[in-house]
Amino acid sequence: MELRQLRHFLAVVTEGGFTAAARAELIVQSALSTSIRNLERELGADLFDRTGRRVVLTEAGRALLPQARALLAGAQAARDAVSAVSQLAAGRVAVGTIQTLTCVDLPAELAGFHRCFPGVQVSVRDATVAELTEALRAGELDLAYLAPDARELPEGLTAHAVWQEELVLITAPGHPLAEAGRTLLKDLAEEPFVDFRAGTGLETAVRRLAAHCGLERRITCDVTQVGLLVDLVRAGIGVAFVPRLIGERAGLPCVRIRQPEPGRTVVLAGRAPRPRNPAAAALLAHLTGAAPAAAGRPGGRPLPAG
């Protein structure tokens, strides 16, 4: 049974005859009659009584009529739903982010996207880099901001934009390091540290930096929320490495590290050069179109992807 056959059946019912139905469907009468005959053969019953001057529905035809209308209405609803997604009048897009993202003002970017496409629902997830990577690969996320451990992204992922973020040391107000404004990494051996949870892009970057310079950090407290990390540093429990913008927003002293200057790479990643999901493709275009503006932000500067 084909939708075309059901459409021809309804046309005969609506127009009251084969000739008028063929004219309404813009086909020759013989083709419409053949279509109806094929439908009757598939269903195993005559749908019209053709003995009189008018075409009259049989009992089987009357039974098919509401079902045919429902099937055609459902098919049209399916077309409309797909069209709405394709034209971005509806749809969903899922984006992941590291919690300490500062090179992009994600809330502002998503607000701008919502103004352009109010019918698209956006889902945001923050997690560790490993969790975001697996969610991307599994198709649970369309896009994600990652801070990968290695220079190259994991296999199967594509970089759409890249930023380099500066990391600074934040301290409590009045801390001796705050007055100096800068220090060497090797001079931090006696400082207590507040650390972010393992597996995050920030923790990975700090751990790699410390290992590279032979710094044995003394961790007094580790946390899972960046807001709590800032509050603990403010309370004097320890110092911490964070992207500069986080320290500045918190109003805490930001001590610059010399030799070497710490930083981390942030990547906007996806599974392919262009997402198949129309809503994800539109969000990617919005985010990458806005990427050059990040050059003037304190968080970092975008670099060419790849």
Characterization of this structure:
The chain has 306 residues and is of the alpha/beta class. It has helices at 3-15, 18-25, 29-43, 59-86, 106-116, 129-137, 176-180, 201-213, 226-234, 244-250, 278-290, and strands spanning 48-49, 56-57, 92-97, 121-126, 143-146, 158-170, 182-184, 192-196, 218-223, 240-243, 254-258, 263-270, 300-303. It has two domains: 3-86, Winged helix-like DNA-binding domain superfamily/Winged helix DNA-binding domain (Arc Repressor Mutant, subunit A, Orthogonal Bundle); 87-306, D-Maltodextrin-Binding Protein, domain 2. The chain has eleven helices and 13 strands. The strands form three sheets. Strands 3, 4, 5, 6, 7, 10, 11, 12 and 13 form a nine-stranded mixed sheet that branches. Helix 8 (201-213) links the parallel strand 8 (192-196) and strand 9. It is rod-shaped and about 105 Å long. Residues 290-306 have low confidence and may be disordered.
